[in-house]
Structures are given as structure tokens and as C-alpha cells.
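[audit] Reproducing an earlier prediction to check determinism. Same input, same settings, fresh worker. If the C-alpha cells differ from the archived copy the diff job will pick it up downstream; this log only records the rerun itself.
[audit] input (115 residues):
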Amino acid sequence: VQLQASGGGLVQAGGSLRLSCVASGFIYSRDVMGWYRQAPGKQRELVGRILNGGNTVYDDSVKGRFTISRDNTKNTVYLQMNSLNQEDTGVYYCRLDRSWGNVYWGQGTQVTVSS
């Protein structure tokens, strides 16, 4: 499975972006899809995940601002990011966790938030 992330770019603080991640293979309802990010000089960290049944989990830093959704018919997961601030700058990666254990990463898309 290959994951293709898109939608990143340069945005002013307070603005919004919507990231998309399309999987080349079928996404099953029991698979977990997630978004991670890596800021310069920092480790990759979890932004949020969408679980079986549509339940979502977010890092505290993005709660209330970011929303993850998925469309299994399009093999796609989205990350709607609102009220962006400079601390949200980084490379955003999508990740697919198959219910049977395989893990796949997308190539990353750059998000840069200017002041």
C-alpha cells in the first residue's frame, strides 16, 4: 500500500488548511488512520488518529482546532486544520495501521505557518 499526502502549504497564523491522504489499496473499517507531524529538530509526534467506528483521538495541542475524518469508499483520510499557529509548522505524515499489524507511512507534506 502506498499513501499519498497532499494539501500542505504556506498559510498565515489563524488560517486553515485541509490535508488529504489517499491510499493505493483498500482501507478496511477496522484499520486505523492517523496523522503525525515532525517539526524541525524535533521527533515525529502524533497529531490525531481515527479508529474503527469513527472514534477520534487528538493530541492536546490540536484539540478543538483539528478534525480528522475518513472516507473508506475513497480510501482517503483528511485532516482539517483551523486556527493554525506557528507551532503547527512541520512535515505532516499520514499513517495506516492495518488491523492485522502492518503499518504504512505516507511521504509527508510540508505545512508552514507564518506570523
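[audit] rerun output stored. Observation attached for the diff report: The first strand starts at residue 3 and ends at 6.
[audit] end
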